[in-house]
Amino acid sequence: MNCRVEIFKKSGYSSHSTKDEDSIKLKNSLTSVRINKSRSTLTSEANISIQFQGLPLAEYQGGNEGIVDNFALIKIYVDEQVEFTGVIKSYNYDEESKIMELNCHDMSYRLLNATDEVIEFVNTTAVGVIQSLVSKVGLAFTRTGGTDYSISKLKIEEGTVYLDVIQSLLETMKANLRATKNGEVLLEEQYPDYTEGAGDVNHFDWTYSDCENTSSTNAGRNASLMRNILKIKCDKNYDKFEDPSMTNYLNGEKWYDTIENSLANTQVKRRAVAGYKFLDMWRNSTPLTTLPALGNKSIDLSQVVKLLREDTLPGYYLVVGVDTDISADNYQDTLQLQGMRDKRTIYKIPVLLSSGVEKEDS
């Protein structure tokens, strides 16, 4: 396994120099690389330790002459395959040990910014809005999934966080958004197809086993965040839904939550939001961590792992987190997995309890 880091000098908003003299390649000076990717957070992180003697650093007091600096583009390669694309967000160096620590975020960090102007859309689609917002922050966009629908008019006020608008759309589209390893923003299905009890008829990307790939696993069930009654609101309109199978699982107890979604302006969309939330709750209730797994440069979020564990039937799990550690003599992954569910059943399961319009406070 060969690992290298490339850093490119920043050159204006969302731009970086491509000149040879404005980039550096680090290999022998690397002491460790750690990459943390998770579906629970939009932005993935990389933390890199390097020997900084002789590196072209920016002036500590300010200035843009150096290459290694905040917002410089950074790419991490494993065996010539891109594992991470992002920017340096902070760095510090210890002059005594001659070690520099870089903290980097992947390119989706730009979606956490707020708009600096009013943005209006007319006669477009949900996918069109997301693509436009992604383009506004200078990122490439690709789509493999998500249910599109028409939007006649949408106004985004100045100061609105890009991700807040996108997240409301994702919930109504049954979709997920994340940055890829090469820095593009990917719109994909919220969840892959899966039929419970069908075994290997289902698609899976990797097979892991206790005796070959991993040293141990830690599994459990967690119902603390389950809410089987959801009130989905858009402006003053609301629909209240129940997941009867979750009610049964919770031993008949009723756990309630209110979800605000400014774009769920029809009952169909509010039902979609309820299904989206119920699916996430079922998914989050079956966490499993493997500690550690042999490094695999091709594994990624949203893939499916078939896990063979001693004295249990094979299990099928969604990859929701990958923590990668690389050093001179070590390359390993810690995988966060969650038990697979049949999304088609859960999307259909919300039972409408009531609908209405909330009255204004007098």
From TrEMBL:
Residues 72-175 form the YqbQ/XkdQ domain. Pfam families: YQBQ. This is YqbQ/XkdQ domain-containing protein. InterPro entries: YqbQ/XkdQ. Coiled coil: none annotated. SUPFAM superfamilies: Phage tail proteins. Gene3D superfamilies: Baseplate protein-like domain - beta roll fold, Baseplate protein-like domains. It comes from Clostridium muellerianum.
